[in-house]
Write a structure and sequence with these properties.
The chain has eight helices and five strands, in the order E-E-H-H-H-H-E-H-E-H-E-H-H. By secondary structure, it is mainly alpha-helical. Strand 4, helix 6 and strand 5 form a beta-alpha-beta unit.
Length: about 180
C-alpha cells in the first residue's frame, strides 16, 4: 500500500499565467527590444534543448542547489536567451530582475482546473501529500498564495534541500 504521493509544483499543480514566453516577451518589449513572441518562443525552446536537457541528462552533473545557485542558473538561461535574440548586454540585468521577481510571486501562477478536485480525492483516500520541486525558497509563498498549502504535509524546494531533482537525495529527504 502506498502512503505518500510526491508531486512537482510548477506545471503539475499550477501553471504560469501568462506563459513564460508571453511574459518574457512582454518584459523585453517593455525594455525597448524589437522581437516577436514567435522569436521568443523559438529561442527559449532552443536554449532549453541545447542547455537544460543535456544538463539534466548528465549522469555526472552536480545537482547542488541553493537560492544563489537557482538565481545563477536562471541568469545563465535568460542571458543566453537574450544573447540569441540580439538584446544588448547592458539590458540583460534589468530584464532579468523583472522576470525573476515575477515568478516568485503567487500572482504569476494559477491552478489547473482539476487541481483542487484531484488533491481533495487524494487526501480523502488517505494519502499523505507532499511537494518535491526544483524551486527556490519562494515555493511555500507560492503554494500558500494559491491556497493549496493545507492539502500538503510539507513542501520541499530544492534550494532549501540543497539538492535538485533528479538527485535521489531530495527524494530521500522527502521520505
Amino acid at each position: 500500500k502506498h502512503e505518500f504521493v510526491f508531486m512537482d509544483a510548477g506545471y503539475t499543480l499550477f501553471t504560469a499565467n501568462p506563459s513564460p514566453s508571453t511574459f518574457y516577451h512582454r518584459v523585453c518589449v517593455r525594455h525597448g527590444t524589437d522581437i516577436t513572441k514567435e522569436q521568443m518562443i523559438e529561442t527559449m525552446r532552443g536554449v532549453w534543448v541545447d542547455t537544460v536537457i543535456p544538463e539534466m541528462s548528465d549522469p555526472d552533473a552536480d545537482f547542488f542547489c541553493s537560492d544563489e545557485e537557482d538565481r545563477q542558473w536562471w541568469w545563465n538561461y535568460d542571458s543566453e536567451v537574450f544573447r540569441r535574440l540580439g538584446i544588448p548586454e547592458e539590458k540583460h540585468g534589468e530584464i532579468f530582475e523583472d522576470i525573476y521577481g515575477f515568478f516568485a510571486d503567487p500572482r504569476a501562477w494559477e491552478l489547473y482546473p482539476d487541481t483542487l478536485e484531484a488533491l481533495g480525492q487524494l487526501k480523502s483516500s488517505g494519502f499523505s501529500l507532499a511537494i518535491v520541486s526544483n524551486w527556490n525558497s519562494s515555493l511555500q509563498k507560492v503554494v500558500d498564495g494559491l491556497n493549496i498549502g493545507g492539502y500538503f504535509d510539507f513542501a520541499i524546494a530544492s534550494a532549501e534541500a540543497g539538492m535538485k531533482k533528479p538527485s535521489p537525495k531530495i527524494f530521500q529527504l522527502a521520505l
